[in-house]
Write a structure and sequence with these properties.
single chain; mainly beta; six-stranded antiparallel sheet; about 40% strand; globular
């Protein structure tokens, strides 16, 4: 399936963050676009990000991958892509690391099918996470200071389909 068949909306404290839609995990707008990208259309952001990766010689591995939605501005971020479980990533002095989290509860698997799972709730370093599957995939993160993030994503949904 093509990347452009999917999309996301990202919100911080209820306000839309277009600059967190269709971007790389830790790339800044200034680094990639030379400006605030919130007014640049989603499809354009995808291609500019891909061109930036090529220009800078960065490998399009998961650290540099273009995700549909990114939650967080600090060293811990959540990356949402297609219909899968979100990745929780932490930037440290040693690089970017994926944070493993439980996909089982009391001996049962959270997954019913490949992209269907029961609500997943957990905490890491004072951050609280909730992931939900269904007709709409929802990822939520509450930072230790109370900042609330929400990403809604799925097939034929989100910023990519406003254009």
């Amino acid at each position: 399936m093509a990347y452009s068949d999917y999309g996301a909306y990202v919100f911080r404290n209820g306000e839309r963050r277009r600059d967190k839609e269709d971007v790389a995990l830790f790339a800044s707008d200034e680094e990639t676009f030379g400006m605030d990208s919130s007014e640049i259309g989603s499809g354009s952001r995808i291609w500019v990000n891909l061109l930036h990766l090529e220009k800078t010689g960065k490998d399009p591995s998961w650290e540099n991958h273009i995700y549909h939605g990114i939650m967080g501005d600090g060293n811990i971020r959540v990356a949402c892509y297609k219909q899968g479980l979100p990745d929780i990533c932490e930037l440290t002095e040693d690089g970017i690391h994926r944070i493993e989290y439980k996909t089982k509860k009391e001996g049962e698997d959270y997954f019913k099918f490949r992209y269907e799972y029961d609500d997943i709730l957990f905490e890491y370093k004072g951050y609280h996470f909730r992931f939900e599957s269904g007709e709409l995939y929802i990822a939520e993160m509450t930072e230790p200071d109370g900042t609330q993030w929400r990403c809604e994503y799925n097939y034929s949904y989100g910023a990519r389909f406003e254009e």
